[in-house]
Amino acid sequence: MFEQFQDIPYQAITDLGDVQLMVKRLDLVHPSISGNKFFKLKYNLIEARKLGYTQLLSFGGAYSNHIYALAHAAQQYGFESIGIIRGEELQDQALNPMLATASTLGMQLQFISRQDYRRKHTPEFLAELQQRYPNAYIIPEGGSNDLAIQGTAEILTDFDRENFDVICCAVGTGGTITGLINASSPQQKVIGFSALKGDFLDDDVRKWTTKNNWQIYSDNTFGGYAKYDQRLLNFMENMQQKYQLPLEPIYTGKAFYQLWQLIQQHHFTASTRILFIHTGGLHKDSSD
């Protein structure tokens, strides 16, 4: 279960002066379960099958990459799937391309109010769901739990530990950066760029790691989650044209933009070897 579609390629970004920058293209790891989602779901699905569950249930917003990937994974590996979607008003609207694809793949979509959605992590709410769906293996929003971190730790290889000084990635729920931190070598620095406003992610990551070789930047999110402007879109277009590097504006575009700014500001010492983890989020069904 969860065989990689192909070896993960590295892409060099040139003409950056004294620093070296490589991009690890996790977006190419699998045709439909791409990026960090492949690694976050891997051990959760193995555990679900081991425990005899026949359904997978998780949570997300209208444009959730996690829900999209979960629908593909469930269909591919023989599970039924249930998506608890934030925003009960969406049930009276036409499905956007991502939710439409999830539905076509067999995912049962349940739209709930934003107030109820905020209870998604509480024991009472989870118990209600488990009673309603006794055959469902429940995965947290974004897929981040101990098994996800076990999977995302596999993103870093011995080659990565030996050949890079700084590891960078976008941060949503914290599961991917925590896996990278846990797998990093003591001399490496792990830097995350948050897609959300606020510094609460630091506390979340500290629950999962005892290491201190990391930092999360959350002061340049372009206004908050899923918000962006023409400046970011122009930057992404430039990266596509100059390096054939595809980015999206929710996670990877913001993260790469902030890393680019640090490089231009000479934040890193000469000869620093930087590895940017491209966490995916690119798919033909997205309207973003």
Order of helices and strands, N to C?
EEHEHEHEHHEHHEHEHEHHE
Count of DSSP strands: 10
Largest sheet: 6 strands, mixed
* Principal-axis shape: globular
The count of domains is 2
Q: Strands of the largest sheet, in order across it?
A: 1-2-10-7-8-9
User: What share of the residues does DSSP label as strand, in percent?
Assistant: 15-25%
Pfam family, one: PALP
Domain Tryptophan synthase beta chain-like PALP: 18-280
Family: Belongs to the ACC deaminase/D-cysteine desulfhydrase family.
Protein name: D-cysteine desulfhydrase
Question: In words, what does this structure look like?
Answer:
This protein is 37% helix and 18% strand. The strands form 2 sheets. The protein has a 6-stranded mixed beta sheet. It has a 4-stranded parallel beta sheet with strand order 5-4-3-6. A hairpin with a 6-residue loop joins strand 1 (10-13) and strand 2 (20-25). The model has no long low-confidence stretch (mean pLDDT 93). The chain has 2 domains: 10-31 and 146-278, Rossmann fold; 37-143, 3-Layer(aba) Sandwich (Rossmann fold). The chain is globular. The chain contains 11 helices and 10 strands. Helix 1 (36-50) crosses helix 2 (65-77), helix 1 (36-50) packs across helix 6 and helix 6 packs across helix 8 (175-183). It has 288 residues and is α/β, with parallel strands linked by helices. Belongs to the ACC deaminase/D-cysteine desulfhydrase family. This is D-cysteine desulfhydrase. It holds the Pfam family PALP. Residues 18-280 form the Tryptophan synthase beta chain-like PALP domain.
